[in-house]
C-alpha cells in the first residue's frame, strides 16, 4: 500500500474524472476507517428450500463513517481493490465473520454456515488459503462451515494462482461459490476453469423470470448443466412469492432476498416490540 502511495494513488491529477476523484477520497478515508473500526458486517439469510430453514448467512460489509452518511459497498469495494487495501479489509471480514459464526454455533445454531464475499485479488495471493485456515482455527470452526463467494468484478489475471488457492481451500473442505451468475458479463469461463461447488444466480436473472420468456427457457437448461456438474444453485434477489415459487420449481436448493430476510446487523432478528 505504501509503495502504491508513492506511485501516486493519492496524487491529484486534473484530468481525473469525477468518479476517479471520488474514489481517491474514498480510498484515503478507508484506511483511517479500518483503524477507527468503522466497518460492520450485516448478515442476510439463505433459506434451504427443502426444509425452509436458514442454512447460511451472507456477510455484507457496511461502512459507517463517523459523523457521515453510510457508504455503500458498491462504491468503496472497487476503491479498496484499486488501492490494494482490499487485502487487509478482506482479512478483517474473514476474522469478524468467523467469530460471529462461532458465536451462533455456540448459541444453538450448530449447523449454520457463513458466506463471505472475496475479491479476485485476495484469491490470487499465494497465502490466501493459509490465512483462511488460520481464521477458521482461531474461531474453532470446521472448514465446511465456510463458503467463499468469488465476486464477478475484476479480471482473474492469474488463473493458475487462483486455481492453486481453490484446490487448497477445497481440500480443506471450504465451499466455493460463483457470485452474480448471469449478471450480463459472461463468467461462464470461470465456471469451466475453476471447481466451484455453488452457483449464485444473479438478481437480474431472477427478475427477468416473470418478464422474459427467454429466461424461462434458459433456466431449466442451466439447472441440468448445474446438476451434471454437481453444483448447488442459489437464487439471489428473491422479492416476490412468484419468484420464490419459480426458483423452487426450477430445482434451486437455496434462496436469498428481501422477501426472505433483509441484511441486518443482528441475527436472528429481534422480536418486534409489543
Ligand atoms: P452481492 O454479493 O451480489 O450481494 C448481494 C447484494 O444484493 C447486497 O447488496 C444485498 O444487500 C442486495 N440484496 C439482497 N437481497 C436483495 C433483493 O431481494 N433485491 C435486491 N435488489 N437486492 C438485494 P450490498 O450489501 O449493497 O452489496 C453490494 C456488493 O458489494 C455485493 O454484491 C458484493 O459484491 C460487494 N460486497 C459486499 N460485502 C463485501 C465484502 O465483504 N467483500 C467484498 N469483496 N465485496 C463485498
Ligand atoms: Ca455475494
Ligand atoms: Ca450476487
Ligand atoms: Ca462439491
Structure write-up:
This is Diguanylate cyclase. Residues 23-274 form the EAL domain. It is a single chain. Helices cover 44% and strands 18% of the residues. The chain is globular, with a radius of gyration of 19 Å. Strands 1-2-3-4-5-6-7-8 form an 8-stranded mixed β-barrel, surrounded by 4 helices. Helix 2 (18-35) packs across helix 3, helix 4 runs parallel beside helix 6 and helix 6 runs parallel beside helix 7 (159-172). The chain has helices at 2-6, 18-35, 73-83, 86-106, 120-123, 128-139, 159-172, 188-193, 203-207, 213-228, 241-249, and strands at residues 39-48, 54-63, 113-118, 146-150, 175-181, 198-201, 232-235, 254-255. The chain starts with a helix and ends in a 19-residue tail after the last strand. With 274 residues, it is α/β, with parallel strands linked by helices. The site of ligand C2E has 21 residues, from strand 2, helix 3, strand 3 and strand 5.
Biggest β-sheet strands, sense, barrel = 8 strands, mixed, barrel
Total number of helical segments? 11
Q: What is the averaged pLDDT score?
A: 90
Secondary structure: number of strands: 8
Q: Specify Rg, calculated over alpha carbons.
A: 19 Å
Q: Report the β-strand fraction as a percent range.
A: 15-25%
Widest sheet, order of strands: 1-2-3-4-5-6-7-8
What helical percentage do the residues reach? 40-55%
What is the approximate shape? globular
**Structural class assignment:** alpha/beta
The sequence of SSEs as H and E is HHEEHHEHHEHEHEHHEHE
Report the span from N to C terminus: 50 Å
Bound molecules: ligand C2E, calcium ion
Low-confidence stretches: 1-10
Amino acid at each position: 500500500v505504501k509503495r502504491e502511495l508513492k506511485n501516486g494513488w493519492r496524487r491529484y491529477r486534473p484530468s481525473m474524472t469525477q468518479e476517479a476523484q471520488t474514489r481517491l477520497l474514498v480510498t484515503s478515508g478507508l484506511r483511517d476507517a479500518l483503524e477507527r473500526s468503522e466497518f460492520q458486517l450485516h448478515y442476510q439469510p439463505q433459506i434451504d428450500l427443502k426444509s425452509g430453514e436458514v442454512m447460511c448467512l451472507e456477510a455484507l460489509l457496511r461502512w459507517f463513517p463517523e459523523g457521515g452518511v453510510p457508504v455503500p459497498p458498491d462504491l468503496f469495494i472497487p476503491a479498496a481493490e484499486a488501492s490494494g487495501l482490499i487485502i487487509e479489509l478482506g482479512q478483517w471480514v474473514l476474522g469478524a465473520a468467523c467469530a460471529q459464526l462461532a458465536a451462533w454455533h455456540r448459541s444453538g445454531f450448530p449447523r449454520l454456515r457463513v458466506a463471505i464475499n472475496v475479491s479476485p485479488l485476495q484469491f490470487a495471493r499465494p497465502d490466501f488459503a493459509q490465512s483462511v485456515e488460520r481464521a477458521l482455527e482461531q474461531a474453532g470452526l470446521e472448514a465446511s462451515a465456510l463458503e467463499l463467494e468469488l465476486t464477478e468484478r475484476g479480471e482473474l489475471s492469474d488463473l493458475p494462482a487462483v486455481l492453486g488457492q481453490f484446490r487448497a481451500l477445497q481440500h480443506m473442505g471450504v465451499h466455493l461459490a460463483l457470485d452474480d451468475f448471469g449478471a450480463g458479463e459472461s463468467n461462464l469461463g470461470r465456471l469451466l476453469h475453476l471447481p466451484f461447488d455453488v452457483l449464485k444466480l444473479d438478481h437480474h436473472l431472477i427478475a427477468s423470470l416473470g418478464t422474459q420468456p427467454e429466461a424461462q427457457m434458459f433456466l431449466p437448461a442451466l439447472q441440468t448443466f448445474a446438476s451434471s456438474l454437481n453444483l448447488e444453485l442459489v437464487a439471489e434477489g428473491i422479492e416476490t412469492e412468484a419468484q420464490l415459487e419459480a426458483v423452487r420449481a426450477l430445482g434451486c436448493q437455496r434462496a436469498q432476498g428481501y422477501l426472505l430476510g433483509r441484511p441486518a446487523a443482528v441475527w436472528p432478528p429481534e422480536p418486534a416490540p409489543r
